[in-house]
Design goal:
single chain; about 400 residues; alpha/beta; Arc Repressor Mutant, subunit A; D-Maltodextrin-Binding Protein, domain 2; seven-stranded mixed sheet; two-stranded antiparallel ribbon; 14 helices
Amino acid sequence: MNREAPTFNFRHLRAFREVANTKSVSLASQRVYLSQPAITQAIAKLERTLGTALFDRHSDGMFTTQAGSLFLDRVNRALDHLRTGSNEAARLGLKKNSRRQGNFDQLLTTTQLRALVAVSVAKNFSLAARTVGISQPSLHRAARDLERLLEITLFEKTSQGIDLTRAGTLLAQYAKLTFAELQQGFSEVAELQGLDTGQIVVGTMPLARSYILPCAINELTRLRPEVRINVVDGPYVDLLHGLRHGEIDMLIGALRLPLPVDDITQEPLFDDPLVVVARVDHPLSSRKNIPLSEIAGYPWAVPRKGAPTREYFETMLASIDAPLPTGLIESSSLILIRGLLLESERLTLISEHQIRHEKHMGLAPLSIDMQDMKRPIGMTFRRNWRPTATQETFIQYLRESCRGEHNLPTI
């Protein structure tokens, strides 16, 4: 998944910010310690990269254009991430004999942070260099220069290759958030010019993939056919990692209660009823009002530990003092579970809406009072994340797709 914005020089971004704040190249020059010609060139380069003017030049000062104001907000957010990440990394890993104090973010360059991020993913300097598109010696030098400048140990050798220390991992996370914020800024400026060059990356869980997401994607692409949408599926823990590191914009699916970490927010959209499902000719399929005590003895296929549905399954068994069944099959794959159920007497606990297609493939819910057992479905975002206009439109389409469980197709 490529989320890289055009490469911006952090000193140029700080110069742009100071000119916007002071409305003067000469005043900005005194604050960022760059010459006035250098600042003028930096702004000209930013404007060429973004394809639009960032300032209106007047005799009484330089005033940001609409594009300039949009980009300024993203630059502020990006540099805030950079400052927070470098300070937190220093708090965790600054060497005891170091005399360095504050302004750690002023030492960082784009090349160094790209190297850090690449190593955090590849766990190897050679592979990381290929990802970034520079030579291995250049990447290695950038990574080690960063370590020396900060006086923080960022890398450590392991049996698997190169890993990041806790300080390095934290700094890499904030570096990714910095780059993601700049990508948002680039997309917003392009949107303003009528160019929908942005990309929406959505982490999705099973129910959303079958109905909610297709509806929202179709609506958005009718309105904005040029937008790119990248749908990522996988275990929740991987999706959450991608969200928190700026690699994924939002998650859609079953919510986690309580919140697993404090740097995300959740927006509930509807409650999704759960049902016990079996093949249509299962011994229990013709019966009505089946007590829970009778299903405990059957074999089961359920999601792995950590999934909300798995927690509901264990709660259901606990309510009748039944132990976990022997021979339990654990999987989040609906295709696998469908195959297991069709060829055995296994049962599963699953979303009622999620199996609407499976009804025509030989599966159906059993007649069991689930005592209003429902799981909340919704969206998950990074705390303080700000969507672009296109992303906000997409979110609105997701809300409309989930305007209540009764709006979903029934089985």
